[in-house]
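Hello,

Our lab assistant flagged a job as stuck in the queue for most of the afternoon. It eventually completed. Since we weren't sure the result was trustworthy after the delay, we are filing this so someone can double-check. Below is the sequence as submitted and the structure that was eventually returned. Let us know if re-running is recommended.
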Amino acid sequence: MTGMETPFVDELVRRLRMDFSEVAVDIRPGGAATVRFRASVVDHTVALYVHEPELGAAVTDLGHEVRDELWPGASVEAAGFNILLVHLDEVLDTRDTTEPLRITRRGLTWPHLLRVD
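-- returned structure --
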């Protein structure tokens, strides 16, 4: 039991399972979560740190910013998750993801180091 409901973390995990393999989540009391998954574009397990309230704020704010232009038929939350996952794909393709990634209330924090193959 996590001590709180985590609908945004749950939805993130559901969406990650559609595109990535070996998705596992550890949700701690208070809604802090570590999500681990395998992506075909990198040769290691990727770790993603999220916190339910911050993820909810990021999804909502990003959704308001992009929905009308990119996904006009979608809900704010769906548009927010869509753009968040687009950003995740871009990070996986271009950045060093050997250190854990983080989603804050501003969205996905991009690692400074570029990916070296």
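-- support follow-up --
The delay was a queue issue, not a problem with the job. The result is valid. Helices lie at 7-19, 52-70, 76-94. The mean pLDDT is 95.
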